[in-house]
Amino acid sequence: MNKNSLLSSFSRNIILQLVKSEFKLRYQNSYLGYLWTLFKPLMLFGVIYLVFSNFLKSAIPNFPLYLLIGVIIWNYFQEATLIGLDSLISKRDLITKIDFPRATIIIASVLGSSLTFLLNLIIVFIFLILSNISLGLETLYLFWIIILLYFFITGIIFLLTRLYLRFFDLKHIWEVLLQMIFWLTPIVYDLSIVPENLQKFLQLNPLAHFINAVRMLFLSRQIPSLQGNLLLLFFATASFTIGYFVFQRQERFIAEKL
Amino acid sequence: MKNNIIHLENVSKSFILPHLKRTTLKEHFLSFWRKTKPDYLKVLDHISLTIPRGEFLGVMGKNGSGKSTLLRLLSNIYTPETGTIKIEGKVAPFLELGIGFQPELSARENVFINGALLGLTPKMIQNKFDHIIDFAEIRPFLDLKIKNFSSGMRSRLAFAIATQADADIYLCDEVLAVGDLAFQQKCLKIFQQWKQAQKTIIFVSHNPSLIEDFCDRALILADGKVKSIGAPSLITKLYSQTDQST
């Protein structure tokens, strides 16, 4: 197999070591370590809940849980893209010294964020228990959705990185865009409360579908329909293949652009 | 031809001069209106070079003459602008001061990351771990963060790891400059071993006696071209002459 293929054992070993170090780097320098990453989405959840619960509690059943799921997935998307965007620059020392597949850095960076996300999901389960919602075997479906979400996000970062290497402003632009995307995604509100023509527009947002799938799973014990499944699969594969293709064409020039 | 392990033909490389590089959106918009032609710095200018298998080649040249760029091209970190590079064998990473370490991680963790980047499996690294640590003489500092290492310790560790990669071609840039005498002796011993094992080595140095002691052939890089190439004793003499004349 080609040494530079992402599936080669060479790449796999690199990804494994990078994920390990990623996790250590994120948490070793703070006293509370991982608790901080738990704290961030919880704070966001708390604030939004305080402000919006009066308007939306009656419209959306199980509003706290509904909101929490949205916030935690959103937090994953936001952290993964921001950290992923910086990952090449933070590994610059390695890139300018050793020839290895650069994509492994981004894959490992998003895997690191995914670990945090998985740990954050524990709060969702605590909320589920507190709300006396029972879960069945369909919960296992969550893993499938998470894997698709991982590929979707990684593809986005591949694309963003390609642009980032050209315009270093992209980081700031992306931070602004993230704020817009936050409100354009049904995290705080439900799609059913927006006007119908706007609904169609908001449904173009893949993130809305991922969040919705997880909510359906926990709150209505429903796995996505075949159509819904194919849509998620489409978002994941389209994002990853296009992103990786674009990134790979630039891969050889990364060392000199950093 | 068969015995040539490295074959460079017409290889050029230039870089956009940093002050004219447009990296922010604002600069892109501004320069859209006034079309400036960016300045390029030609670091290597149509270099052709063949290196036979098992040769110990010395590379001399002033700072900024393109030595590091040449080694980076050979290790596939940079892509040549023109020309072709053919390499028939595995290249060990290019060694220079402070090889790619993650400063915030401990020496132990960095050994594993670097090992993986060199193509070693975790098991292989585990087996070679003690050897690496002893060679670099950093056993008491295993769990210290790399950022707290002295530059000497850092390059000793880098050298110790890189020697574990089983390659056909080794690229070294002044690795000896930082170690103390005892460590330099160790490095020289490794060079001897490589030589005996018929490895190909490209060695960048400003030290004439090292070039004369080890190299089979040497070259001088100047203004992006191979200015002269030949027997080490001849080249070192030429090099010291041009050095004095400027």
Written account of the structure:
The complex is a heterodimer of chains A (258) and B (246). Chain A is mostly helical and 258 residues long. Chain A has one domain (9-257). Helices cover 74% and strands 0% of the residues of chain A. Chain A has helices at residues 9-27, 34-56, 63-90, 92-95, 103-130, 141-164, 170-184, 196-202, 206-219, 226-250, 254-257. In chain A, 36% of the residues are buried. The model of chain A has no long low-confidence stretch (mean pLDDT 90). Chain B is α/β, with parallel strands linked by helices. Chain B folds into two domains: 4-92 and 167-245, Rossmann fold (3-Layer(aba) Sandwich), CATH 3.40.50; 100-166. In chain B, strands 5-6-3-7-8 form a five-stranded mixed beta sheet, with helices on both faces. The longest helix of chain B is centred in the C-terminal third of the chain and has 16 residues, at 181-196. The model of chain B has no long low-confidence stretch (mean pLDDT 84). At the A-B interface, helix 1 and helix 4 of A face helix 1 and helix 3 of B.
Shape of chain B: globular
- What's the N-to-C terminus distance of chain A? 29 Å
The total of beta strands of chain B comes to: 8
Number of strands of chain A: 0
* Order of strands across the main sheet of chain B: 5-6-3-7-8
Task: Kindly state the percentage of residues in helix of chain A.
Answer: over 70%
CATH superfamily of the largest domain in chain B: P-loop containing nucleotide triphosphate hydrolases
The profile of the biggest β sheet of chain B is: 5 strands, mixed
Number of helices of chain B: 8
CATH architecture classification of the largest domain in chain B: 3-Layer(aba) Sandwich
| End-to-end C-alpha gap of chain B | 38 Å
Quaternary state of this entry equals heterodimer
- Helix/strand-derived class of chain A? mainly alpha
Strand content of chain A: under 5%
Mean pLDDT of chain A: 90
What is the name of the CATH topology of the largest domain in chain B?
Rossmann fold
Provide the β-strand percentage band of chain B. Answer: 15-25%
